[in-house]
Amino acid sequence: MSKKVWKIVCVVSFLLMIAAAVLLVFSVLPLQNTPDVSIIGGADGPTFYFILTTLVFHHPLFIAAAVFFSLFVLSLVVLLIQRRRKR
Fold first, then answer.
1. Measured at the alpha carbon of residue 2, what is the angle toward residues 76 and 15, in degrees to the nearest 5?
2. In whole angstroms, what separates CA 46 from the centre of its chain?
3. Residue 8: CB partners within 8 Å, gap ≥ 6?
4. For residue 43, which phi and psi values (nearest 5 degrees)?
5. Most exposed of 6, 8, 37, 70 (fewest Cβ within 10 Å)?
6. Judging by beta carbons within 10 Å of its beta carbon (0-12, 13-18, 19+), is residue 13 exposed, middle or buried?
7. Distant-in-sequence contacts of 50-57, Cβ < 8 A, 24+ apart
8. pLDDT in tens, 33-70
9. For residue 1, how far is the Cα from the chain centroid?
10. Residues contacting 17, CB < 8 A, separation 6+
11. Closest among 20, 5, 24, 8 to 68, alpha carbons compared
């Protein structure tokens, strides 16, 4: 593929990654308006990881952001390799 195509893929995947991340943040933020349950040490250790994995990691926007980030990194690496070969 040409360098121009990889640049387009890089920019588009970066923009989609940012959009998915912003939508993820705004979709998870309303969860903070729910009544709080006070648990001493609730933000430490296993409880934190349990809450994080159940709320964020299985969210479709998180998966989309991860896919777009992977595509962005791949296209950026290809562009850097092409630039290095040109020299």
1. 40
2. 23
3. none
4. -100, 10
5. 37
6. buried
7. 55/28, 55/31, 56/24, 56/28
8. 555 555 555 566 676 667 666 666 677 777 787 888 88
9. 26
10. 65, 68, 69, 71, 72
11. 20
Report helix, strand and coil shares of the chain as percent, to nearest 5: 80, 0, 20
pTM over 0.85: no
Q: For residue 84, give both structure tokens.
A: 């290095």
Nearest alpha-carbon partner for 61 in 30, 16, 1: 16
- 36: tokens are 């709080």
At position 32, the amino acid (one-letter code) is Q
pLDDT score of 65: 79
